[in-house]
Design brief:
The complex is a heterodimer of chains A (299) and B (372). In chain A, helix 14 packs antiparallel against helix 15 (263-283). Chain A is built from 16 helices and 2 strands. Chain A has a two-stranded antiparallel ribbon with strand order 1-2. Chain A is mainly alpha-helical and 299 residues long. The longest helix of chain A has 32 residues, at 78-109. The chains are: A mainly alpha (299), B mainly alpha (372).
Chain lengths: 299, 372
């Protein structure tokens, strides 16, 4: 706490100014690439270069237009990729919330033989990074069957490659999500279930009517972490998707980056990929920060 | 995470009523858990076992030829390293022969390797020349050894930089000044930005002539620092990726440090003040010990993430220049996916996993031992 005698101490004021200077310089370093990206996305190539070494690079001044955005829509299949990314991210998050919370409910609120072993096995799976299994997983999904739909009839497909579901289903069950749910559910007093059980509630009803309504924060945490993780997926999509029909945004922008030298258009594409996440982040900032911190500390 | 967290309450007393209840719980327990358990088994456990099995085969992604077991051949091809010593060539008068550049002349390495059966499959990794002899380090897959060394280099640079920056940010944000919320948001913004986008934007910032990084360095050093070809010079390519990665990730660890700082009891600081401790002493004797567990967690998780380095390399450099940014994961994708050599890619995955496991256990052991 600051006492009034310190307030007038010039050394204290000096120190505080120095702290603010440090905070501001760091804010500049952390923000300017993003601000530069967004501002450049409105400018023609020539102006990006002339504005480069002045403060104008970070301001929406000069020949401002949406031309770069229009060009991106004309030159690339960004619309398809946007829809793909939204579908992949949305369904993984929703399915993941359901499947992983159910598993955590089963592990924390019900009692069955072998559950300690299953729990220990899930904790052990946490150490395996996705990178270490991506190559054999590629081999696996290349040979998994799937029932598809083509020209009005069902057909048996012999591989999951180049589809949307290959980017969704392997990501749904998540050991870390189960772990977060488990920790939260475990701390809810057992009295609630017991009271409901005496009233004749089935485990489904206890899950849906008792536990889920009490667990908003952990659902938010898992949803946010999975949303970020899925929206920014890169390694897995480049391995399993070749064509444009199932490609999501991140490999899409990488591909666009490789085929053009128009920096304004690249920045427009990059802004479009980033701005949805930034908006979600700014809207749910408090939740975001709390979720990430709690996930980190618990992990 | 403590072991006590997983201790279950004592089992219920066995009565008839409880027996039927337990049967029901068992049924629902498996039913409700099964989608997740099946997913984890099929998409994590099975591939993990497959990696081990495939690493002993010559499996390819799509191949008409039947797959065969090859024993430890993949591991040999991946890890085999040896060396040879060569003396400079002499003429009849026993003078050292010099090449056009005035350097001692050696027998062509390719010829030596071809002549000697025991060097079959080996290629040059690096060469150390001493006046009129030289030592050549050979490997069967020099690119993997290089990638492995690059990954370790990356980890050694990025861990102190990123964790240090994160701690500094957390300390500044934790001072409770006005505007803290804004600053915290600003530092965290790169974390929610995808690594692909970050890599593309920084490719521009790192440009030798029009990049803002060079311009910035030039300005603050009053022109002392010349133009650095960040992504085009093998000396600077890895540091460039390190700086960018730390910039992207520091905000996340700042949050973890912040949570840790808030768990340090306020009275410890007050007691330290009463004892006349200055800010540095408080930091050294209260804050740092209080952040012990947080720091261990941050370091271990950063290390594991560092060993997975892939996206930045794939977008910015493609492993170059002269393989200076090729990494273990990049090599695994190159072999297992781009060249569709699944058996070999799986071998890299297994080695990669063992390294991660060893590091995680090693760091845990080290920190546990220091505690005692």
């Amino acid at each position: 706490m600051v006492s009034s005698s310190q307030m007038v101490d010039p050394r204290f004021i000096y120190k505080r100014l120095l702290t603010y200077a440090a905070l501001l310089l760091l804010a500049y370093i952390f923000l300017f690439p993003l601000v530069f990206m967004i501002m450049s996305s409105f400018k023609p190539q020539q102006q990006i270069f002339t504005d480069l070494f002045s403060i104008r690079a970070l301001l929406p001044v000069g020949d401002i237009s949406l031309n770069n955005y229009i060009a991106v829509f004309e030159k690339s299949a960004i619309k398809t990729m946007f829809v793909n990314s939204m579908f992949i991210t949305g369904s993984t998050v929703l399915l993941g919330l359901l499947v992983n919370s159910l598993a955590a409910f089963s592990l924390s609120r019900l009692r069955w033989t072998g559950q300690n072993f299953v729990l220990a096995a899930i904790i052990a799976l946490l150490i395996i990074p996705f990178e270490a299994i991506s190559v054999p997983l590629l081999m696996l999904v290349a040979h998994l069957p799937w029932i598809g739909w083509e020209n009005g009839q069902l057909i048996l497909e012999s591989s999951w490659l180049n589809t949307l579901h290959v980017q969704i289903l392997p990501m749904v069950a998540n050991a870390f999500s189960i772990f977060l749910f488990y920790q939260f559910f475990r701390d809810i007093p057992k009295d609630f279930d017991e009271a409901a059980a005496i009233d004749g509630a089935t485990p489904w009803q206890i899950y849906w009517k008792v536990i889920v309504p009490m667990s908003g924060p952990v659902f938010a945490t898992v949803a946010i972490l999975q949303f970020l993780n899925m929206w920014n997926q890169y390694l897995w999509p480049i391995m399993v998707v070749q064509g444009e029909s199932a490609r999501p945004l991140q490999p899409g922008i990488q591909q666009f980056f490789g085929t053009t030298t128009e920096w304004g258009e690249i920045m427009a594409y990059a802004s479009m990929v980033t701005i949805p996440v930034l908006i979600v982040f700014l809207l749910f900032q408090k939740k975001f920060v709390r979720s990430m911190a709690s996930a980190g500390v618990k992990g | 995470m403590t072991d006590s967290a997983f201790i279950q309450p004592p089992p219920m007393a066995r009565t008839k009523k409880n027996d039927s209840l337990m049967r029901r719980q068992r049924f629902y327990g498996w039913l409700m858990g099964s989608p997740a358990f099946l997913g984890l088994i099929l998409f994590i456990f099975v591939p993990f076992v497959m990696a081990i099995i495939l690493s002993f085969t010559n499996q390819r992604l799509l191949s008409p030829n039947p797959t065969e077991g090859v024993g430890f051949r993949n591991y040999d091809r991946l890890l085999a390293v040896t060396w040879l010593k060569q003396d400079a060539q002499h003429d009849e008068q026993n003078h050292v022969l010099l090449d056009a550049k005035g350097e001692p002349q050696f027998e062509r390495l390719r010829k030596v390797l071809r002549q000697n059966e025991s060097y079959k499959g080996y290629d040059e990794l690096s060469t150390f020349t001493f006046s009129d002899s030289r030592v050549v380090i050979l490997a069967k897959d020099p690119l993997f050894i290089k990638s492995f060394i690059n990954t370790i280099k990356f980890a050694f640079m990025v861990i102190p930089l990123q964790c240090g920056a994160a701690l500094l940010l957390a300390l500044l944000v934790n001072m409770g000044l006005k505007g803290t919320n804004f600053f915290r948001t600003a530092y965290f913004a790169p974390v929610v930005t995808s690594m692909v986008v970050v890599s593309i934007v920084w490719t521009f910032l790192y440009h030798k002539d029009i990049g803002l990084v060079n311009e910035f360095l030039n300005k603050i050093s009053f022109g002392m620092i010349g133009k650095i070809n960040w992504l085009g010079d093998p000396k600077w390519s890895m540091p460039a990726i390190v700086i960018m990665s730390a910039w992207q990730g520091a905000g996340y660890q700042m949050l973890i440090f912040l949570a840790g700082l808030q768990n340090i009891p306020e009275d410890l600081y007050e007691a330290a003040s009463l004892d006349g401790a200055n800010s540095w002493q408080k930091f050294r004797n209260v804050t740092l010990p209080g952040l012990r567990n947080t720091t261990i967690f941050v370091i271990i998780s950063t290390t594991i993430a560092a060993f997975g380095l892939f996206t930045q390399v794939d977008v910015m450099t493609g492993g170059g220049p002269s393989d200076s940014t090729s990494t273990v994961m990049y090599h695994a994708v190159r072999k297992g996916f781009r060249e569709q050599d699944i058996g070999y890619g799986a071998t890299i995955s297994v080695v990669y996993f063992l390294v991660i496991l060893a590091i995680a256990l090693g760091q845990k052991y080290y920190f546990d031992k220091r505690e005692k």
